[in-house]
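If you are new to this repository, start here. Below is one unmodified record pulled from the training split, so you can see the exact layout before writing a loader.
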Amino acid sequence: MRVCLLTPVLDAFKGGNHLPLLAALPDVQFTIVTSRMKPRNAVLPSNVRCEVIPGRLGPYYYGCVDWLFGRAVLRRYPAGHPFWKNFDVIHLNQTMGPALLKLKKTGVPVCLLIHHPVSADLDVALQESSLLRGLLWRLKYFLLRRWQARLCHEFPVATVSKTAAARIASDYGIHAHAIRIVENGVDTAFFTPKDLSSSEFDAIAIGAFIHPRKGFRYLVDVYRELGKSGLRIADVGRRSAEQQAELAAIPNVRIFGNVPQEELLSLLQRSSVLLSTSLYEGFGLSLIEALACGRPAFAFDAGAVQEVLAPVDPDFVVPLRDSAELVRRVTAFLDLPPDERARKGVVYRESAARLYPLEKSAQALRDLYTMLGGG
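And here is the target side for that same chain:
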């Protein structure tokens, strides 16, 4: 089977179609067409090749990236170009460029995989913003929301959770039963526990917190309470200059910024608890990565968090925006005797391996391609 995967930015280890997932389908040959790969030195699996279309695509908001990426792809390879005949399936990965509608003319089946609907991102931004700031967010998302909705009506849709499927169906007016589910999976051969009874850091938070969807102001509240208690915190991921300055003023917080995948694993293994203040998650890949490392993941009840974490431990799911309760549950776990935390860690890893193996995710992706006629 031959698949062309189109994505404006290839984040090699994040999202619903990270490289480990593609590597878990060794008999599928992937050609990834993108404008940029993060990190640039990521080693591609043997069944994956990457073609980078050069050129600046501008900012994500206002649809600049998606608009320009779609046009760049079709300029390089028009719908009638023999390039497209090399593939059994064309996979649009969280991209909304309206020019990509022309791919229908290739005669090759096309599917759209949505990690999370941009309508949810907009709703959270409006909830977290002043009236004036909210008007700007509406402008930023005006085209993106329209384009994603249009592509949902033109191509078969897949997403990463039942919760996200229900939201896509509700917001864009399509039938939920027609949306295929390709859950995230975790590579338990890579994400493994170390010493479950002791850690260098008491808590860790991972991800880019630039967008209001990630709940940075709630993260700061949690950090302040944990830091006052002398607990050690590892902060990992992209932060604005203003956010870095705010975090630097909180005691016992160590700021790492963006780190390579191997260092991310090491930091997870050296931390006792993962916490998330995200206000919407289509799935939450870092949650199951922490579980695979034998670490509990406490997260606000946002998006698919209930769907993902409650089968492991309902106590992981914290009422939305309740920073005080998140602090309470994190500290309650840290107060447990080390041997009890270690025993629980073994159960968390076993649950992640049983519920969210990478092989299960790969099979769901294969089934999607087969359904589209990819053989």
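Two things worth knowing about this chain: The chain is about 40% helix and 15% strand. The mean pLDDT is 94.
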